[in-house]
Write a structure and sequence with these properties.
The protein is built from ten helices and 20 strands. It is an alpha/beta fold.
């Protein structure tokens, strides 16, 4: 899997849903302030390299030379999707035509080509139109456009579990305006109708100092975390000392009673939140996985909370998604003298989902901190 956090990938559940128009709207706006690279992927069904009959009839397939091919797209009549992307303002446009069995190879060749063309692959604004490419690339944001019907083309069904946000098409527009998409600091942002809460009121005994103020890349760790959350939520709230964290310029909510642990911080911030849905994280987790949080939001349904469970079976309540209404249950628990956050979950209607590996790590000790400084994502 190729990880490309600076890529927006847009797929569709069916035809005539305005997918290319949606993409071109985003290109038109973003290209006014920065270079944009656009990619269209056309993948043909095959079985071990042998084309199925339906694919063989496809006129676009008849233009394919070899197992895959990459072409630079530019000026044209404007009828082709790639020509529309170019005219919308994309600096470079690439079209991949590939057998599905060659998709991994084709995408790797594309990234090599992009680098050879002088594009800084790791930070340039990239927008890709595809469903199938999600099987080979982990983008920063994967959107799928669909209508209210239940019909899904196979290429969408295969990757639907990986979708970050489903956008409904209403015939003359979408429920999410392309102008809401933001690309800055090599990351894509699209606000969820939810609040992010950073719990920072702990005593950091094992670290020996305030973990939230540890310096990472020249800024405090809590600022690094909040910077990744900004723009992806309607609001970001910090649980902690307002004077200590005033540099964040975020609403900071003190505990109702000091030194009572994370349950008190959760209660205070849920009370203060302006959102029905609230995702919680801690001030010592340097790489929040926004795609995973979006998946939690999609799974919320009528549950009180969605909580990840790690490979060892531990319920990770401190990165859970909670309804604001959970406040009442917390108040009852505290009134009974119970401050353990683990005891919050049993009375609630909770959906548990597997925690994806490779990102959930805390900086609990000085060794953790030094390892992160030395190895970054490799530590995670």
């Amino acid at each position: 899997m190729i990880r490309c956090p600076n890529m927006l990938m847009v797929g569709a559940a069916g035809r005539n849903l305005g997918k290319t128009t949606f993409i071109c709207r985003a290109i038109e706006r973003l290209s006014k302030t920065q270079p944009v690279v656009a990619i269209k992927v056309t993948a043909f069904d095959d079985i071990d390299g042998k084309i199925i009959t339906e694919t063989a009839r496809c006129n676009t397939y008849k233009t394919l030379e070899g197992r895959f091919m990459i072409t630079h797209e530019g000026e044209g009549s404007g009828a082709k999707d790639t020509h529309r992307m170019f005219h919308a303002g994309a600096e470079k446009v690439y079209w991949i035509r590939t057998l599905k069995s060659a998709l991994d190879e084709a995408l790797q060749a594309l990234f090599d080509q992009i680098r050879a063309d002088g594009v800084t692959l790791e930070s340039t604004c990239i927008i890709c139109e595809s469903n199938s490419a999600r099987k080979s690339v982990e983008p920063g944001l994967f959107l799928v456009i669909r209508d209210a019907g239940d019909d899904f083309k196979p290429s969408c069904t295969e990757v639907y579990d990986e979708v970050d946000r489903v956008i409904l098409f209403h015939g003359d527009g979408w429920e999410v305006d392309p102008d809401e998409l933001d690309f800055s600091e090599a990351r894509w942002r699209l606000p969820e109708d939810a609040t992010a809460i950073i719990l920072s009121g702990g005593q950091s005994r094992r670290m020996g100092c305030d973990k939230g103020l540890l310096q990472i890349d020249g800024i405090p760790l809590i600022e690094k975390i909040s910077g990744q959350l900004r723009g992806n939520f309607r609001e970001v709230i910090v649980s902690g000392d307002p004077k200590k964290y005033n540099f964040l310029q975020l609403r900071t909510v003190p505990d109702l009673e000091p030194a009572r642990g994370p349950l008190m911080g959760l209660l205070a911030t849920l009370r203060a939140s302006n959102s029905e849905l609230n995702w919680v994280t801690t001030c010592d987790m340097p790489e929040p996985n926004i795609s995973f949080v979006r998946r939690m939001i999609r799974h919320m349904g009528d549950y009180d909370a969605v909580v990840p469970v790690d490979a060892d079976g531990w319920k990770q309540s401190l990165i859970g998604l909670y309804r604001k209404g959970v406040v009442g249950m917390i108040e009852q628990q505290i009134a009974a003298g119970n401050w353990a956050i683990r005891d919050l979950l049993p009375p609630l209607h909770v959906r548990y989902i597997p925690l994806t590996s490779g990102w959930y790590r805390n900086l609990n000790t000085k060794k953790d901190y030094q390892d992160y400084l030395n190895y970054g994502h490799d530590f995670i």
